[in-house]
Amino acid sequence: MARTSSAAAAHIGSRISETRKTRSMSVDELAVASRIDSSNIRGYEAGRGLTSVHSLVRIAEALKVDPGSLLEGVTSEMFTNER
Fold first, then answer.
1. pLDDT digits 0-9 by tens, 47-68
2. What residues does each domain of the chain span?
3. pTM (2 decimals)?
4. Under CATH, which number does the domain 2-65 receive?
5. What is the helix (H) or strand (E) element at residue 38, kind and residue range?
6. Are 23 and 64 in contact, with CB atoms under 8 Å apart?
7. CA nearest neighbour of 15 among 82, 78, 81, 83
């Protein structure tokens, strides 16, 4: 998980969390279904890290949603310059 402080990470994490709760899934259930460690899922949902595209697709598949739905509302301005 890439550590970040961007608003994009927080936004995507919020979308993952909302979708997971709508599907009545626990973090552990999502972790098993997506084959991603539950600590990483918790980090994504808290906005502490930005998920890779591969992980985002796996999470979306586990949630049975289009990956784009987890990116809805993300803009380039949400990313901070971390160099």
1. 999 999 999 999 999 999 999 9
2. 2-65
3. 0.88
4. 1.10.260.40
5. helix 38-45
6. yes
7. 78
